[in-house]
């Protein structure tokens, strides 16, 4: 998979670790930074990752900030992006199976690296349950993006 990754200063270390894992697993990783603990504004990074997914340059996106909240708010403003903030594996699976989420947001100040990796693998490994009520609801989300 082509996976766009990004983080602010609070999440860059976790992002780097997860990105290395993804590369190791054979994914094509596009890293939008940041690359140090120097303070940056999370909206800018989140927007870059979300745009890459929305434009079809990446199949999925992964964004890490302190809580995952700010970046998920930003990513969900981009048309076509369904960003899910998940801090447990059940939500991560559901976010794929029911919501066809294409961006995963994590909070590096909320969970540790081992759980983050489990969440990421659960999210990547789960497929969307297409063809029924979930697809109808996800289609409705796309319609709403044109209405608001
Ligand atoms: C940065 O201090 C922090 O606000 C940011 O990483 C994130 O948690 C925002 O939602």
Describe the fold and architecture.
This protein has one domain: Ribose 5-phosphate Isomerase B, Chain: A. It is built from 6 helices and 5 strands. It has helices at residues 12-24, 42-54, 69-75, 89-97, 113-125, 133-147; strands at 2-7, 28-31, 60-65, 83-85, 103-107. Strand 4, helix 4 (89-97) and strand 5 form a beta-alpha-beta unit. Helix 1 (12-24) crosses helix 5, helix 2 (42-54) packs across helix 3 and helix 4 (89-97) packs parallel to helix 5 (113-125). D-ribose binds next to helix 3.
Q: Strand order, biggest sheet?
A: 2-1-3-5-4
What is the helical fraction, as a range of percent?
Answer: 40-55%
Order of secondary-structure elements: EHEHEHEHEHH
Class per helix and strand makeup: alpha/beta
- Strand % is 15-25%
CATH names the topology as: Ribose 5-phosphate Isomerase B, Chain: A
Name the average pLDDT: 98
At a glance:
47% of the residues lie in helices and 16% in strands. The chain is built from 6 helices and 5 strands; from the N terminus they run βαβαβαβαβαα. A 5-stranded parallel sheet has the order 2-1-3-5-4, with helices on both faces.
Reconstruct the topology from this structure.
Layout: E1 2-7, H1 12-24, E2 28-31, H2 42-54, E3 60-65, H3 69-75, E4 83-85, H4 89-97, E5 103-107, H5 113-125, H6 133-147
Parallel strand pairs: 1-2, 1-3, 3-5, 4-5
This protein binds D-ribose.
């Amino acid at each position: 998979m082509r996976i766009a990754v990004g983080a602010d200063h609070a999440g860059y270390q976790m992002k780097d670790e997860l990105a290395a894992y993804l590369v190791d697993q054979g994914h094509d990783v596009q890293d939008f930074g940041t690359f140090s603990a120097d303070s940056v504004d999370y909206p800018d990074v989140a927007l870059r990752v979300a745009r890459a997914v929305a434009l079809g340059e990446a199949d999925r996106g992964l964004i890490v900030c302190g809580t995952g909240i700010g970046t998920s708010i930003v990513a969900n403003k981009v048309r076509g992006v369904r960003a899910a903030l998940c801090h447990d594996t059940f939500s991560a699976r559901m976010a794929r199976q029911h919501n066809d989420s294409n961006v995963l947001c994590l909070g590096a100040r909320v969970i540790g690296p081992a759980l983050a990796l489990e969440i990421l693998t659960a999210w990547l490994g789960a497929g969307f349950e297409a063809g029924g009520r979930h697809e109808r609801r996800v289609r409705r989300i796309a319609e709403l993006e044109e209405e608001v």
